[in-house]
Amino acid sequence: MAVRLDDMDRKILAALQEDASQSLDEIARQVGSSKTPVWNRIRRMKEAGVILRTTALLDAEALGLEACFFVLVRTSEHEADWQRRFLDVLRKRPEVMEAHRLAGDIDYILKVRVRNARAYDTFYQALISEVRIYNVTALLSMEEIKSTTMLPLG
């Protein structure tokens, strides 16, 4: 269920999405308010679950994680036990940046970050050894054209 936000809330969220390390004074100045009302709004949005957490964004390539694969998974298993095992495996693998269950011919898509193709193969071998999968297709991203964590607030 969507939380009701006003324009001031959206301005605060936009400032936080741009740089959450800003001080309350800086955010208040940007949104045309004072520190206490901004702090109260941020606290309210945290309590409402709009703001989940504050993190640092890291440069994957600077850390040597130069290969990004999109992994398409098809399964012939649709029982709850298989799905639970599969999701547990994904949650334990730090290489899996995102995982989505899909409608259509492909059951799941994973975004996997690794050092290189050999590291991907190690990931793949571990994945198929832990859970039975009908078909896996790996697509190597040649160039990241757009990547953002900023949600549209309009």
From TrEMBL:
Which InterPro entries does the entry link to?
ArsR-like_HTH, AsnC-type_HTH_dom, Dimeric_a/b-barrel, Tscrpt_reg_AsnC-like, Tscrpt_reg_AsnC/Lrp_C, Tscrpt_reg_HTH_AsnC-type_CS, WH-like_DNA-bd_sf, WH_DNA-bd_sf
GO molecular-function annotation terms? sequence-specific DNA binding
**Pfam families, alphabetically?**
AsnC_trans_reg, HTH_AsnC-type
HTH asnC-type domain location: 5-66
Q: Which residues cross the membrane?
A: none
Q: Which UniProt keywords apply?
A: DNA-binding, Transcription, Transcription regulation
User: Which SUPFAM superfamilies does the record cross-reference, listed alphabetically?
Assistant: Dimeric alpha+beta barrel (SSF54909), Winged helix' DNA-binding domain (SSF46785)
Q: Which residues form a coiled coil?
A: none
Instruction: Report the record's Gene Ontology biological process terms.
Output: regulation of DNA-templated transcription; response to amino acid
Q: From which domain of life does this come?
A: Bacteria
**Per its record, how is this protein called by name?**
Transcriptional regulator, AsnC family
Q: Which organism is it from?
A: Gemmobacter megaterium
Taxonomic lineage: Bacteria, Pseudomonadati, Pseudomonadota, Alphaproteobacteria, Rhodobacterales
